[in-house]
Amino acid sequence: MGFRCGIVGLPNVGKSTLFNALTETQAAQAANYPFCTIEPNVGQVAVPDERLDRIAAIAKSAKVVPTQLAFVDIAGLVKGASKGEGLGNQFLGNIREVDAIVHVLRCFEDDDIQHVANKVDPIADAEVVETELMLADLESLEKRVPAAAKRATGGDKEAKITASVLGQALELLREGKPARLTEPKDEEEARLFRQAQLLTAKPVLYVCNVAEDEAATGNALSEAVFARAKAEGAQAAVVSAAIEAELVAMPAEDRAEYLESLGLEESGLARVIRAGYTLLGLKTFFTAGPKEARAWTFPQGAKAPQAAGEIHTDFEKGFIRAETIAYEDYVTLGGEAAARDAGKLRQEGKEYLVQDGDVMLFKFNV
Ligand SMILES: Nc1ncnc2c1ncn2[C@@H]1O[C@H](COP(=O)(O)OP(=O)(O)OP(=O)(O)O)[C@@H](O)[C@H]1O
């Protein structure tokens, strides 16, 4: 489906370590990013979901296919990016292409690893990156808002709405706040706001990269980041990239024990992937049979034919109905046949709003 999370951060904060762990653990096929000369790496990463394994066990599926999310390693942030210095313009362009930003912040102390500003201060680091993004948005809106206002006086209704919603964003940026805090009045404002593709309107997940012995608890630095995230309408997670790198290097059967010895229930990567998925407002439906059990991604608010279209365009075009079982029913009753007998297999039509966890079988006509 092509939803992408871009990994950004200052030099030496642990971006590559995290990205490599993400892609290695999934044995991803890293592909080159087609649109730019600095070619940030893209990794397709499987989204961990226990529900899929339970469904596969019940359906006795031969194959289990998770849904995927793309992570893009966006290289090269330098101070002054918004002014087009160095790799700046490419960097901003790369961010424009992603749907959400995973912002890695160094929260570990290690005298051997140099910090660009010679001090470990994730809040100051976050500000460096965010200031560049806000300046880029500010510069673009300083032009776009007056232009839209001018068109509005000429009677252009859409321009009037654009001027209003982007004007609100401009005010926020002038106060040093991200455009994400803009509150569109209605669906039309929301649509035009999305269309404006502002960099600081993209959802952000801060990844606090902590030392190995702080992965379970976090530390004072990560706490400060969590507070900042809350104030900005962003998300945050604690991860130790060092642990993740070790985990992917060890045999799969040793990982659980290692995690347990560190007081962790699951890998930080699993949390980052899931958080990225949630951040994008993505939901999952399942298909299940003896051949395969598979998880599919759909955007929140999708109707049944659109979900069917995730599998094949023919399913969408020729959609008749969707035989649907809620995940809980599927699991508690023990599969499709039992759910059908219990009257829990619903025949859903074109207007059905697909729910997270639905197990679906599409009937279509081509
Ligand atoms: N949680 C951690 N604890 C200790 N060391 C870490 C941790 N995370 C990363 N490192 C180390 O920090 C160094 C920098 O990491 P990495 O190369 O991933 O950073 P980067 O952000 O990709 O840098 P650049 O942008 O310069 O490529 C590496 O030596 C890495 O092993």
From TrEMBL:
One GO cellular component term noted in the UniProt record for this chain: cytoplasm
Keyword ATP-binding tagged: yes
PANTHER family per the UniProt record, alphabetical: OBG GTPASE FAMILY, OBG-TYPE G DOMAIN-CONTAINING PROTEIN
Function noted in UniProt: ATPase that binds to both the 70S ribosome and the 50S ribosomal subunit in a nucleotide-independent manner.
Gene Ontology molecular function, alphabetical: ATP binding; ATP hydrolysis activity; GTP binding; metal ion binding; ribosomal large subunit binding
Superkingdom of this protein's organism: Bacteria
PROSITE patterns: G_OBG (PS51710), TGS (PS51880)
Organism classification: Bacteria, Pseudomonadati, Pseudomonadota, Alphaproteobacteria, Sphingomonadales
InterPro entries for the chain: ATPase_YchF/OLA1, Beta-grasp_dom_sf, G_OBG, GTP-bd, P-loop_NTPase, TGS, TGS-like, TGS-like_dom_sf
Protein name: Ribosome-binding ATPase YchF
Pfam families: MMR_HSR1 (PF01926), YchF-GTPase_C (PF06071)
Binding site for ATP: 12-17
NCBIfam families xrefs: redox-regulated ATPase YchF
Cofactors: Mg(2+)
Alphabetic keyword roster: ATP-binding, Magnesium, Metal-binding, Nucleotide-binding
Domain (OBG-type G) ranges: 3-281
Organism of derivation: Erythrobacter litoralis
UniProt record similarity statement: Belongs to the TRAFAC class OBG-HflX-like GTPase superfamily. OBG GTPase family. YchF/OLA1 subfamily.
Keyword Lyase carried by entry: no
Domain TGS per the UniProt entry, residue ranges: 281-364
